[in-house]
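ok so I'm stuck.
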Amino acid sequence: MKKILFILLMCLLGAKSNAQLDNRSVYEYYNYLTTLPFDSITSVPKAVNKYKEIFRGQNLSVCDTAYVVFYEFYMRVLDDTPFDREMLIKISEKHNRNLTDSLADYALYLKDNGFVLRQDDDFVYVQPDDQYIASHFFFFVSREMQIYQDKLMKEENQGFVKNDKLMIPLQDLADRVAWWENFYMKYPNFVLRRDIKQRYDSYMEAFVFGLPKTPIFTGKKGALADTYKKAYQNFVKQHPGTYSASIIERYMDILRKCKYKACDDALLFTWKSL
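replied:
not stuck anymore, here's the structure
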């Protein structure tokens, strides 16, 4: 875990081009996080309080960088903490109503330490609490980081892919492609541009090629599904002049030449990322 945090820190600080950026406070924060246990969610409020202590009054660029270091720590704590599965299941079964004292205490324990319970079909799990993040960090970080975090949390709650199947409407996927391109272009100095690019690529790949259980080509003849064809046409109309629209236009030209059926040129279609 310490190695992962250190690599992340080096990438973040190495990406900074502003010579006036003072990284000593970020190093101090990183060193503090490595002293906290990663297998207990009680480490999260300690990390939050230390963040506030160190970065109150510092410039937004430093605060954004430190927040990214915190968030990586936050997610590692989530991964490493051994939650009481029996308690989680019992709480979910009661839908947070009429809980016994012990169950109510455990639900509050999660909430106080920055996490909430979520149920997806028959699976119960713990996830980050977006309200906790907003209440503690949005005062410190830049507006673009607030926008990024809010969008990220909403997409995580909505889902994306499960068991090789698209879990959101195709229009929502198209909207994500357009949104992340716009964000990438609007904030050229954003600290997490690499993450945005990867997220954009994942969405664009799913939009262009489909998924095993949400295929773009269907039937014995491998014809282009009407849902995708309409989605591509709408995307070009709704987002003219964007880089993503130019990709879809090139792809549609190939599909037309292939009479809207699977062909080598369509299956091997490539594009340059943002």
